[in-house]
Write a structure and sequence with these properties.
This protein is mostly helical. The protein has one domain. Helix content is 72%, strand content 0%. It contains 9 helices and no strands. Helix 3 packs antiparallel against helix 7 and helix 6 packs parallel to helix 9. It is globular.
C-alpha cells in the first residue's frame, strides 16, 4: 500500500470519526437492525398482556425487568450480527481496501468500526428504554400510588448498553482474523456466553484462564432497577472504568491482528 502522511492526533480523530459515522450510517440501513428492533419492541409491548392482573408495584418491576432482558438479549444479537456483517460487507465489497489505501491507519479503522456499532447500540438502547418508560408510565397511572424509579431505569439501560458494546468488541476481535461473517458472529455470541458465565468459574482449575475475560454479570441492570435508591456514583464510575479498560483491550487486540492481515 502507498504511504501517506498521517498528521497529528486531530487528523487521527477526524479519520476515526468519519469511519464511525460511515459505519453507523451503514448499520442503520441494515435490515437486521430494523428486524431486531421491531421484534424487541413487540416483546416489550407483550409484557402489557399482564395488565388484566393487578400486581401493584410488582407488576411494574416485572415490566421493567422484562424490558431490560429484551434490551440485553436482542442487543447482544445485534452487537454480534451487525458487527460481523458490517465488517465483512466492506471486506468482500472491497470498500475497506479503498479506505485503507488512504491515510487511514488500521487501528483507526477498527476503532471507528467499534464506535459506529456502539452508536447503533446506543440508539437501540435509547429507543427500547423510551418504550419501557412509556409502558411503565401508562401502567403506573392505571395503578394509583405506584412509583417508578426513572433514574434507576436510565442507569439500568446504561448498564445494558455497556454490556452489549463489549459483545461488539469481542466480535470485532474475531472479525480481525476470521474469514466469514457467519463464523465471526457465531464466535462472538459464544464469547458473550462465556463472559456471562465467568462469575461461576472458581479459582484455579482447568478453566481458571477464563478469569482474564470480562465478567458481563457485573453489569446487573435488574438489580440496579430493583434497588431502593439509585446506584451510587462510585458504582457507575467503577462499571464505566471496567468497560473502558476492556473496550480498549479489544480494540487494541483487533487492531494488532488486523494489522498482520494481508489483502
Amino acid at each position: 500500500m502507498a504511504e501517506f502522511p498521517h498528521g497529528g492526533p486531530s487528523a487521527s480523530f477526524r479519520r476515526t470519526r468519519l469511519v464511525a459515522l460511515h459505519t453507523l450510517g451503514e448499520a442503520l440501513r441494515l435490515r437486521l437492525t430494523a428486524l431486531l428492533g421491531m421484534i424487541g419492541a413487540a416483546v416489550v409491548v407483550g409484557a402489557l398482556a399482564l395488565r388484566e392482573f393487578n400486581f401493584g408495584s410488582a407488576e411494574l418491576k416485572f415490566i421493567g425487568d422484562f424490558g431490560l432482558g429484551a434490551i440485553g438479549g436482542f442487543g447482544t444479537l445485534l452487537a454480534a450480527l451487525a458487527t460481523a456483517q458490517l465488517f465483512f460487507s466492506e471486506i468482500q465489497g472491497r470498500a475497506a481496501y479503498c479506505v485503507l489505501t488512504r491515510p487511514v491507519r488500521r487501528w483507526e479503522y477498527m476503532a471507528g468500526k467499534f464506535i459506529g456499532v456502539a452508536g447503533l447500540l446506543a440508539l437501540f438502547t435509547v429507543a427500547m428504554g423510551l418504550l419501557i418508560a412509556a409502558l411503565l408510565a401508562v401502567r403506573a397511572a392505571q395503578l394509583e400510588g405506584a412509583v417508578v424509579g426513572w433514574t434507576a431505569l436510565a442507569c439500568a439501560c446504561a448498564m445494558q448498553w455497556l454490556k452489549v458494546t463489549l459483545v461488539a468488541g469481542m466480535t470485532l476481535v474475531v472479525c480481525s482474523y476470521a474469514g466469514s461473517a457467519l463464523f465471526a458472529s457465531g464466535a462472538g455470541l459464544i464469547l458473550a456466553v462465556v463472559a456471562h458465565l465467568r462469575s461461576f468459574v472458581g479459582e484455579g482449575g482447568r478453566f481458571g484462564w477464563i478469569k482474564v475475560w470480562p465478567n458481563l454479570a457485573l453489569f446487573d441492570a435488574e438489580s440496579v432497577l430493583a434497588a431502593t435508591h439509585p446506584p451510587s456514583a462510585s458504582l457507575l464510575l467503577g462499571c464505566a472504568g471496567y468497560w473502558a479498560v476492556y473496550a480498549l483491550v479489544f480494540i487494541g487486540i483487533a487492531s494488532y491482528v488486523f494489522e498482520q492481515r494481508e489483502f
